[in-house]
Queue: 3 jobs
Job 1
Amino acid sequence: MKAVILAGGFGTRMAEYTEAVPKPMVTIGGKPILLHIMDYYSKFGVTDFVIAAGYKSEIIKKFFLDFSLTNADFRLNTATGITERLGGTPSRNWTVTVVDTGIDSMTGGRLLRLRPYIGDGTFLLTYGDGLSNVDIQNVVKAHKVENNLVTVTAVRPAARFGELELDGKKVKAFKEKPQLQQGWINGGFFVVEPSFLDYISGDDSVLEKAPLEKVASDGLLGAHLHNGFWQCMDTKRDRDHLDQLWESQQAPWA
């Protein structure tokens, strides 16, 4: 299966980073979160990626154009510009398609613009700013068994603040930033049938609004309930938390 990654947004809540690079290129442990996501998918045998770029798309394009050489030793003839890779087997043997889906396109519009590159098979879809330890194979199995048009990974994020369980004016229990026990949210990590693209009207279409709302009303939107790790990177605080997990060798997605 191909994995499609939506990586074109402005990332305005992380302006301290995204004035220089698109949010998927913000680093966790020295490598872009986009690469963390792709490495995670590759654990499940995914080697074909389609990236919907937009804001500062040239940075994502250059990263992958240079990827083979910057991750290997090479010999360069400065007169001809011919490069030769020196020895070794590349650690990542992937096909990566990077498509500029426009600066102002919404999430649905970006996905629709990828139609020529997705093909007519079931594909995986996620956002370029979230990490998890969800079992992708289990999401695919559920999708097939339930005959869904789209299956979304439903998650319960950690609370931003500590939780107090009260008994009158006494604190019965104190939990420091626990995982929420109610309120499932969209965690990305979708499995999608290509005919879902027919639900998207154009560049202004927001994936999470009319298209998915219609699929849900048609009874074709399934949910894979994931109680494990999931973390989006919406703010500098989120980025620092993910970075700390990586540097302490406690990253659940690693």
Job 2
Amino acid sequence: MNGDQIRILFSNLHGKEPIHFERVNISKSRNASNSVSYSFVPVFFNNKQDLILNPQESIYSDVVEFKVNEGEFIIVEISSSNLPSTLSGTFFFKDQPITSIFELSESTQNQFKTQLLSDLESVYLYGIFQIEVNTKEDVKTIVTFGDSITHDSKWAAPLAQNLYSKYPAKVSLINYGISGNRLLFDSEPNYFFGDAGIKRFEKDVFENNNKVDLVIVLEGTNDIVHPLTGTAPLSEKISSQDIIDGLKVLIEQAHNHSTKIILGTITPFYNYQSCWTKTEEKKRNTINEWIRNSSEPDGYIDFDKILRDPKDPKRLYYEYDKGDNLHLSKKGGQKLSDSVDLEWLLGLCN
């Protein structure tokens, strides 16, 4: 975006321990590697640079006079005396950052992996929730909402980049996916899957943003598979109609805010943790047929048709499979994002 002021929202909403930020500074860079930066500017909180962010608390920084031009990168430098053991933050897969407009260097990734998650392929940024730019231009806001297939940004990041390239400084894409999230049920204890989609939709999408023009929803997979993987009790098994009814709740909430909403068809999960059955596949197909034929949403993206194996539709096409029969590879995410008609998408925002 182009703007002359920014503010940063820090959140410890789901944390169980305070986070102490000794100082926060921001700068700009002309490239993603952060190798060419401007001088850093301090960020204050009620005129103080020191911040203790308590559990279940979210705090905006003071507004910073900070000119931003489209195409520049914002660098946030944080000094913290403690990192929480309970996750509250944004995560990156090593082979695909959460947004394609920011990349951690290999050395930084290795440092985070060593310090925080030495045995995983993920690194975490703690406390930062969002950066807001005050702009005088008519910028359209698109939100992606869903589970890990959205959260890991394999399709959302290249879609954002496609939009930014075609419509520079005219559109912003915000990712509200949560790994493991379900549409109808809250996370089970000891997991970090968030509140049920129908519960968090209003709060995450609309309370955190002044204006949302379009929401893209891809959710329902975990409602089907979690009770079969042991991640949720069998008593929480759902029917296809349960998911359809839940999606109708999101449609109504979006329309109450005069926001357009499009749905994504549920992608194949054959052989994912051995939880696939003909019954669950029938549920998926029933939900997808409703999405394709319903007039209630403002449109749909056929994730299923784009990503499935044309010779065996119950499977992901092998090149689009990250390797676990459920999540997308970078190639799969790029294929999906390149299949979306950008003019149609932005037209819905009008």
Job 3
Amino acid sequence: MDQDAFTAVDAYLVEALIDRDEILDQALSDARAAGLPMINVAPNQGKLLAILAELVGARRILEIGTLAGYSAIWMARALPPDGQLVTLEYEPKHAEVARRNIARAGLAERIEIRVGAALESLPHVRGPFDLVFIDADKPSNPDYFEWALKLSRPGGLIVVDNVVRGGGVANPKGDASARGTRRMFEIIAAEPRVTATAVQTVGSKGWDGFCLVRVLR
């Protein structure tokens, strides 16, 4: 098996289970045209986030790492009409592309973008949230997780993306992203207020994975 096979299987799964969506397709096209890194979640991963939001009955969602707004659109669509998604983005250029994509999706009233370093924005974010999605700079994952826990309600869910790093997370001497993710796992494992697991994935985005954390209290 190789990357071509992983991508082909993802393409089949998306074609089989996910309706074509011009708004989401255009969001990716605009991101590409603007020169943004194409590191958004895949369509099947976006739908997974939406399903998770529905399963926890999310009314408020926090996202750390907006990029072009692709995952925010997926999750916000799962919210009730009076629901809210707050998303934090460091790069003003990314945030501007996201605003256009979100407005086109008819979700401007439901999604609030805050621009700036997430660790500077988070102290000013008001919780609690039902779902937190962390998909930003990986060396900061330990801090992002601790803020996510602080801002989550009991019974809420925290999802952390890109935790396998092409296998790099298994190397204690790996790069800064792998080390940050390992430190986050250590914090999660020692935290009595949560229960968690992590799953490897392969697909159009390569070899990676995600961590699911359920907040107990």
